[in-house]
Amino acid sequence: MPTNARRTSRSARKAKHGCHEDPVLAFYQDDDELFQDDDDLVAGDEEGLEEEEEDETLDNAIRKYLGEIGRYPLLSAEEEMELARRVAEGDIEAQQRLVESNLRLVVSIAKRYNTQGISLLDLVQEGNLGLIRAAQKFDPSRGFRFSTYATWWIRQAISRAVAEHTRTIHIPVHVVEMIYKIKRITRHLYQELGRDPEAEEIARVARLSKERVVELQGMAENPISLDAPLTDDEPYHLADTLEDTRATAPAEAVTHRALRDQIASALELLNQRERQVIEMRYGLADGYCHTLEELSAHFKLTRERIRQIEVKALRTLRQPIQAHLLRDLA
Q1: Where is the RNA polymerase sigma-70 domain (predicted)?
Q2: How far apart are CA 126 and CA 158, in angstroms?
Q3: pTM, entire model
Q4: 13 has pLDDT over 70
Q5: Is the per-residue pLDDT at 22 higher than 70?
Q6: For residue 229, what are the β-bridge partners?
Q7: For the segment 124-162, what is each residue's pLDDT rounded down to a tens digit?
Q8: DSSP output for 125-163
Q9: Which domains does the chain have, with CATH numbers?
């Protein structure tokens, strides 16, 4: 297998070139989508013109790789069956020939996953690993061609690489495949209807529920960092706009403080036992409103005696509103 596929670089965007006699290069250069962002994947922001020099280097590497794999002839169904039989017997040379004859299939699949997160050469390399796995497990007795069987393994390998390297939040490979499916259906319906399709329309074609389609569309969105600036001119970040639901509102904090001060002043009119009974009865001591039975056990007095102390203490406070304030605070 050519070693060029192991080379790594950033994502490239191909410029149009003249025709080539090599049919593989012609296929590669005539496909407008080969170096375009594929909506099947969640890509980042578009690269600027400063990438052109690196893009040209990557173009050359890909053209060289395609030229190399174009030398391997395609196989007939009979040849595939014979090679698969030999692979099952442990023939390494047969496995290598089966793989090399289908390297162009990997490129045709990888181009549909081309994104700025992973370069096309890296996608091809991941797909090649899936192709090797397919060659090892292919069973011609099932009645279908090797390319049909290998496509699933190639897509799985590429999808797994994309899921692991291009997303902040991990998504299982089978879910990533469903996201790709929803994206493809959405593009097709947009071309057919001339507008953005509704979730119900996508669900009908995908044979999924509307809720599942909406869920998958949400998973396809790019995560936004809480440290992302709101604007270029302001030093504020997205996190600054989020409400802290655990924090007390300023107005509520002021009211609560004033209420506590008022209650503290009122409790100074009581003796020590009366104050303790009121504090425990209304949760002023530990935030827990104790029952008469609990207070009876604590002070070693009867429930009736505790009730009498409570009534006397509230009467001492004189202002009935104070009792309501205690309950509001609790």
Answers
A1: 122-135, 291-317
A2: 6
A3: 0.45
A4: no
A5: no
A6: 237
A7: 999 999 999 999 999 888 888 898 899 999 998 888 887
A8: HHHHHHHHHHHHH--GGGSS-HHHHHHHHHHHHHHHHHH
A9: 3-166 (1.20.120.1810), 170-222 (1.10.10.10), 250-329 (1.10.10.10)
Token pair of 145 as six digits: 């061609």
User: How far apart, in whole angstroms, are the C-alpha atoms of residue 114 and residue 201?
Assistant: 27
Do residues 262 and 325 lie in contact, with contact meaning Cβ atoms separated by under 8 Å?
Answer: yes
Please determine, for residue 34, whether its predicted confidence score (pLDDT) is greater than 70: no
Please count the other Cβ atoms lying within 10 Å of the Cβ belonging to residue 101. 20
- What is residue 223's three-state secondary structure? coil
Say how far apart CA 139 and CA 102 lie, in whole Å.
Answer: 16
Instruction: Confirm if 84 and 142 have CB atoms less than 8 A apart.
Output: no
Q: What does the block give as tokens for 7?
A: 């080379």
Ramachandran class of 207: left when φ > 0, alpha when ψ lies in -120 to 50, beta otherwise: left
